[in-house]
Amino acid sequence: MSSAVTLDGQEIKIVPEGSVAGPIHTVVLIAMLFGGAGLMYFSSGRVHGTEQPNRVSFYLTTMAWEWFLTGYVLWGVRRYGKSLLEVTGARWTNAKDVFRDLGIALAFWMVALAVLALAASLLHFHGSRQALSALAPEGPAQIFVWIVLCITAGFCEETIFRGYLQKQFVTWTGNAPVGMVLSAAIFGICHIYQGTKAVVVITVYGLLFGILAQWRKSMRPGMMTHALHDTVSGLAVRFLPR
């Protein structure tokens, strides 16, 4: 049911049925996401321009920001009487559920890599390695923090973009494809620090995640793939030959 108030004997809906939070909460979240993207753009620029960048500090700051945004999302969800499960999907009940989602995540990753390669080729975009080169970890300590950052990104970003924003947009527009595209576009813009062509490629990536979430009614396969992709991407840029 939707949240409502009674005025002069008439019930007035505040939150459309199916929403996980109120519109003001969502607008504030989007404003924070865009503001954070702007700060990330300038912060990553400083990292790229520094001969010995403090990557660990950048990783920790990014993690703190993502957990703050996730906390804000969950606060809004709980405030409107919704549960975390309405954002992330049903819990795993046995090992079979875990392995099924892991298999889906790996298969989805293979498909996503092919689609991303095609999108990058069509855009003549070859800057993903360059965009990640200054951020990729060096040494055991940085690798450990990088992996924690990637796991954080997998959980937090899927919760925010697919678990929360996509549900909001699908509900408000009454159209699943439109809702998925809007969420994916915001996801892409939030990666502006990687460049404008990267925004387009990452928007396509976000749309793939949106399709997966809409199909599975769960964020868990997407969280797995997201964390795995980010982890492997950073390590590959650092350790594989050019």
Head-to-tail CA distance between termini: 55 Å
Rg, alpha carbons: 19 Å
Major beta sheet, strand line-up: 1-2
Number of strands: 2
Output the structural class: mainly alpha
**Proportion of residues in β-strands:** under 5%
Question: Could you characterize what this model shows?
Answer:
The chain is mainly α. 74% of the residues lie in helices and 3% in strands. It has nine helices and two strands; from the N terminus they run E-E-H-H-H-H-H-H-H-H-H. It has a two-stranded antiparallel ribbon with strand order 1-2. A hairpin with a 2-residue loop joins strand 1 and strand 2 (10-13). Helix 4 (95-122) runs antiparallel to helix 8. The protein is globular and about 50 Å long. 32% of the residues are buried. Residues 1-8 and 10-15 have low confidence and may be disordered.
Characteristic terms for this protein:
242 residues, mainly alpha, two-stranded antiparallel ribbon, 9 helices
